[in-house]
Amino acid sequence: MISTTLAYQAVTRNLTQSLERTAEKPDVATETAYFEKNIGKVKTLDDFMADDRLYRYAVDAYGLGDMAYAKAFMRRVLEEGGNSPDSFASRLSDPRYRVFAAAFDFSGTEKQTQLFTDNIRTVNTVTFFVHNEGLFNYAMKAFGLESIKDKSDEIMSAMHAGKLTGSFGDKEIDAKFRDFLKVYDFAKNGTRTTFDPKLLQETTDRYQAAVRAEQMQPTVDRYVRQQFEENEGASNENVRLALYFSRKAPSLKNAFQVLADPALIQVVQTALGIPKETSGMDIDRQADLISKKLDFAKLQNPEELQKFLTRFTAMADAQAGPPMSAALTILVGPPASAAMTTDLLMSIQSLRLGGM
Hints:
It contains 22 helices and no strands. By secondary structure, it is mainly alpha-helical.
């Protein structure tokens, strides 16, 4: 059987190709195609939860597939969003919920749409519209024009004229702006422009589609990465652990984040030779022990991260096979197992961790 070290090096030597091969697998490609085709149709949280295939793709992508069955719980996570420190997701110890809720921010999207719906008919001039930041930015996002929203003079000039006389220097943007002018035709309809029901419907529909488009690629990328790690784990669980740690490492700032994640603590304990018995210690003492042995700042350096993961894979192989050679013992220290006690996990669940 190939060693963890060699297997990890093989799949990460050209990670892009490895991920591309995963994305091309029939089951992955089929689910991704469905997600890409249908996520843009979602307008509300109810729409999202009602399509079980979309919903499960998303929760799998954010590493929460084991909680997909708990729809009432996940609905609450999404209802309150992830951007407020007081939201349900932010109060949970597992930061994955906050990241998921922030990515699929139905709460924030619905509030923005309601604000636009309630106020757009107060707009009766081009100048008032362009200088009302909330309404204007909503419309710019809806029509894919965020990149030019600061060009207020050019925008107002074109809206007054009812046509684009110049160019924004991008043919695609110019085409989108012409679509925008067809809906926001103040030159033709004057003060009654914003009373047209079609304006409200088209703008809100486009806004929802724009938000879903923003969610699509990051979610697809996460899903493919999750599937890639799971596939590698089927052959060698330690390779999966190493891949997972490498993905999470840039966001790790403190030992409590490690202690909150059984996979991360397994990697850290194994790599640093921390005995499994320490899992029964007070959580603050465990955090202090890890902090003394692991410089989290170094994990932000790709070379240092690679050294750490090489140490982990070597130790993992040593634990799985015959006793370590004297040379390996000198290099990485004595082996250690990574166990999590029930008491520790319950203690961790009571913590409120900051950030990912």
